[in-house]
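Dear colleagues,

For the upcoming journal club I promised to circulate an example of a predicted protein-ligand complex. I picked one with 3UK because it came up in last month's discussion. The inputs are reproduced below in full, followed by the predicted structure.
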Amino acid sequence: MKDLGKEKVFNVASELLDHNAAVRGDKVAVYCGEEKATYRSVLENVNRFANVLKELGVKAGDRVMIVLPDSPMFIYAFLGSIKYGAWPIPVNTMLNEEDYRYMLENSQAKVLVTWSQSKASPVRPEHFCYKLLDDNEFITLMDNASTEAEAHPAREDDIAFWLYSSGSTGKPKGVPHKHIDMIHSADNYGTGVLGIREDDICFSVSKLFFAYGLGNGLHIPFRHGASTVLLSSPPSPEAVMETVVTFRPTIFFGVPTQYNSVLKRMNGSGPDDFRSIRLCLSAGEALPPEIFRKWQEKTGLEILDGIGSTEALHIFISNMAGDVRPGTSGRVVPGYEAKIVDDLGNELPPGEAGHLVISGRSITPGYWMRPDDNAEKFIPGGWFKTGDMYTQEDGYFTYQGRGDDMLKVGGIWVSPVEIENTLIQHDAVNEAAVVGHEIEGLSKAFGYISLNENYRDKAADESLKDEILQFVNGRLPKYKSLRSVFFIDELPKTATGKIQRFRLRK
Ligand code: 3UK
C-alpha cells in the first residue's frame, strides 16, 4: 500500500529553518563565543553554503565531509548540504590522518570542509574534488554567494546525512539517516523527555559531530524554536563552567566523564552557578549512581541518564524528570519500542539479562555497504539489535555491558584492537589485549601484555611499564589513551586463537 504522506516533498533543512526565520527571524538561534547568529542569518548562511556547493558542481547525493569545531559554520555546512540535497558527514575532530583517509575513501566524499591546520586537511584521495577551508578563500565564496536557495525536493525517507560509528572490527561504519529522523527524535525526546520550549537555551558539552551532540545542539533546539550555545574549544571543566555562567543555559547535556570532571573542579562554586539550568541530561555510557548523587548534592539538580546510539540518531530509553531511578537508563521514550531477547530472539521475562533490541522511525535504514553487519543487526520485523546487554524491571531498563569487546571511554567508542596494534609496535611487547575496567564507576582502557623473550626478566620493572605507556599514549589521540598496563605470562585465547578479552575484564 502506498503511503501518500511519504510522497510529499520534505527537506529537513527547510523544516528546521523556514518557519523559525519567518516567525522569530531576529531571535538568536546560536551563541558561540562572541558570535551570535539569528534564525534569519542562519537561514541566509545555510543558503549561501548550498549555493557554494552548486557553484562547485556538487550533485545531490554527493558526500560532504565536515571536520569542524562546534561553530555556526558547522551548522551552515551541515544544513546547507542537506538543503542542497548533498549528504553531509560530520566527523570527530580529534582523529588522525589515517582515520580521515579511511572515511573519505569509504564515503567517496566529494567535498571536505575543515580548517588548514586540521589533520584531515592533508588528505587528498583521488575521487575527491574540493577542500573548503574555514580560514581562507572559502570565506570569500560564502560572502559572494546568494542568501536565497531552493531546497532539494527530497522525501521524508530519503537520505539526508551520514554519521560514522565504530564497529567491533574497529573500522568505522557509515550510518545514513533520513530527513525525517531528526524530526522524529526531536519530537520524541525533545518533547517527551525534555519538555523543551521556545525559551530554552541548550548547551551540549558533547560536540555536534556525535549523534548525541547533534541532537542536543542542533535539531532538537531548532525544531522547537529554542536557542543553542556552542563551545568551539575542547570542553575543559573550566570552559564548561565559564560557558554556563556566561550564557545561562536552561538545559545542560554531557556524558558521565564530563559531569565527573566538572564535579572535581567545582570547589568554591555551587548551586548558584547552575541556577539557570532546569534539566541535566547524560548519555553515551551508563551514569554511575555516585555521580548522580554528588551532582545533586552540589547543584541541587537531577541528571537524567538515557541510552541512545548513532544508529537510532538519539536517545530511545531515558529517565524522566521527577521519576529517576539512579543506576538505570530509565524507560522507553514515547515513539520507540524496546525489548530484551535471548540469543534466538525470544523475549525474556523481567529481570533476565539479554540483548536489547529497539524499533522506531529514526533508526538508520542500514549501514553503508556493510551487508554482513546489516544482516546481523537488523532483525526482520523492524527491530534493531543495539549490541548491548540489558535487564528490565517495572519498565526500567538497566545496562549490563556490551555484547562485544568495544570499549566506551568518556562516552566515545574505543576499539581495543587499535590500541593493541599500537602496543605491539613496542620492542618489548609480544602480544597485547586491551579491555575496559571501571575506575570510580567509569570505564577506562587497560592493557594486558605478554613480553618478548629477551624482556621476560623485566616483568617486575615499573619503568618498563611507564615506557610502554608513554609509547602507546604518545601515538594515539588522548581519548584512546591507556590508564595503565599489566604484564602477564600469556593471553587467554580460544581454541581458534582468538583473544578472550572478556576473561581479562573479570
Ligand atoms: C552505549 C550507553 C549505557 C551503548 C548516543 C545518545 O552514545 C551514543 O551513540 P554511540 O553510537 O554509542 C551507542 C552505545 O553506547 N550507551 C549510550 N548511552 C548509554 N550505555 N547507558 C547509557 N546511557 O552501548 C550504546 O549501544 O556512540 C547517545 C544519543 C545519541 C547517541 N548516538
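Two points we might discuss: The mean pLDDT is 92. Residues 165, 210-212, 283-286, 305-310, 314-315, 329, 386-388, 399, 402, 408, 413 surround 3UK (CB under 6 Å).

See you all on Thursday,
B. R.
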